Amino acid sequence: MIKIDNINKHYGKNHVLKNTNLDILSDKVTILSGPNGSGKTTLVKLILGIVFPDNGAIYLDGENINAGVHYKNKIGYMPQMPNFPENLSGNEILNICKKLRNSEVDFTEYIEHLRLENHINKPFKTLSGGNKQKINLIQAFGFDSDYLILDEPTVSLDPVSRLSLKELIIKKKNEGKSILIITHILSEIIDIADKLIYLVEGNTLFDGEIHELNSITQSENYDIAISQLTHQYERNI
Amino acid sequence: MKEIYKIFKYSIADITRSRWLLAYLLFYLAFGLILFYLDKDFGKVLISISNIIIYITPLVSIVYTTIYYYNSQHFIELLLTMPIQRKSIIYGIYLGISLALSLGLMVGINIPILLNLQHVDSISSLILLNMSGIALTFIFTGISLLIVLKNENRIIGFGLGIVLWLFASVLYDALILSMIILLKDYPLDNMILITTIINPVDLARVSVILNFESAAVLGYTGLVFRNYFSTSLGLIISIVLMLIWTASPILFTKRIFTRKDF
């Protein structure tokens, strides 16, 4: 479990995360959503150790992440934009990731499943957006990490690849992995999610099971349900 | 060290395949060949090459490092999510850029010299020329990393780098010259020494020309430097100062990188 304990984060005068307390549970697919500037990217960067909190702590499986970098071996991260070294091949990029993680894992299954055999040795700059995203996907999923953090994973994937990705996410969940997906577009991924965390202006507007959202708002449409919650929040402040 | 090597290896593999590096190498290669074609006097050629190195090397180091860092920002963020120390990432990238550019510079300037080996009469000058070029590459790569880490905005980062180059390579000498003219009635030797130490470009220039006997080549700064320390002592001091200049920016860069929010 990832426990976010009373985290605050400022960028200058901008209070991006306000006393945030969250639990990201194991064996679940959790969606982290919110409008632009809501703090979702900052929250993920805090978990990944890319950003430091002003105060509070983050625990991964009970261990404070400030204790060292070894906890990062438990996390696979798929950034939104696969901007990797342009002159290296996909294979070389994946090998770098393997070396940095001290892993001997074999990616062949993924490469074949994603039909990358003919592209994996080409320079990264010559690949299509979809193939670049597939390499991004392999470096995130390929290490069999306990936690997967996916930033807008369906961007630039064709419908077939999107479906494959969803199947992969469900497979990983069934293997006991925790998956945190950051997305703007709920409708694209919510059908496979168990939990939703919705942030607005650094506050947690909703943190619960997907079906709870429907029962609170009396709406089957997720966009309408979120819209109702947001209006309620705006009236209260 | 193992972690630094892993980052360095990917970084240098990426950069050495870049067309920019090839263009840099070819520039020095063509320049050296033309100089030897025009004049076979090794001393003159060396001075001309050193003058070009002093202007071009800092500029290329600044421009290339700035472009490379901003283009690699997302990948650096991905590296930060891996179980690797932050300092290893920045040292690895720094070494990758500096050594790749140094390699381009050394191959570019030394091939024409090797082809004209019969005219080479001072190996020490040649070594100093290479060392100065490498030191300038390392210094300005470190300074550029410092600038880009402090500036998320590409235009500001790039602009600051160019302003720094303009100041260190072009304006600085003009300012010193103006000061010398204005204060000609006062003893200026100590001031000249200090101003040379402050600017790594001047320091690199002095390190190369100290080996030459001719006053015309040495110039006022070089003469003051040599008179003050004698040639060998002056050389050692200038090398030590260059090493301090090389180490300082990257140590500051590491300090910023390990505490930075990305």
Describe this structure in words.
The complex is a heterodimer of chains A (237) and B (262). With 237 residues, chain A is an alpha/beta fold. Helices cover 33% and strands 26% of the residues of chain A. In chain A, the strands form 2 sheets. Chain A has a 6-stranded mixed sheet, with helices on both faces. In chain A, helix 2 (90-100) packs parallel to helix 4 and helix 6 packs across helix 7 (222-236). Chain A is globular, with a radius of gyration of 18 Å. With 262 residues, chain B is mainly alpha-helical. Chain B contains 10 helices and no strands. The mean pLDDT of chain B is 89. At the A-B interface, helix 2 of A face helix 1 and helix 3 of B.
Q: Could you tell me which chain pair has the largest interface and how many residues each side has?
A: A-B, 31 and 26 residues
Structural class of chain A: alpha/beta
Distance between the termini of chain B: 24 Å
Task: Let me know the average pLDDT of chain A.
Answer: 90
Strand percent estimate of chain A: 25-35%
Total helices of chain A: the number is 7
What's the number of extended β-strand segments of chain B? 0
Oligomer class: heterodimer
Q: What is the helical fraction of chain B, as a range of percent? A: over 70%
In short:
Chain A is of the alpha/beta class and 237 residues long. Chain A has seven helices and ten strands. The longest helix of chain B has 39 residues, at 42-80.
Structural topology:
The complex is a heterodimer of chains A (237) and B (262).
Chain A: E1 2-11, E2 14-24, E3 29-33, H1 40-48, E4 55-60, E5 63-64, E6 75-78, H2 90-100, H3 108-113, H4 129-141, E7 147-151, H5 159-174, E8 178-182, E9 195-200, E10 203-209, H6 210-217, H7 222-236
Parallel strand pairs in A: 3-8, 3-9, 6-7, 7-8
Antiparallel strand pairs in A: 1-2, 1-4, 4-5, 9-10
Chain B: H1 2-16, H2 19-38, H3 42-80, H4 86-115, H5 123-150, H6 154-182, H7 189-198, H8 200-209, H9 215-229, H10 231-259
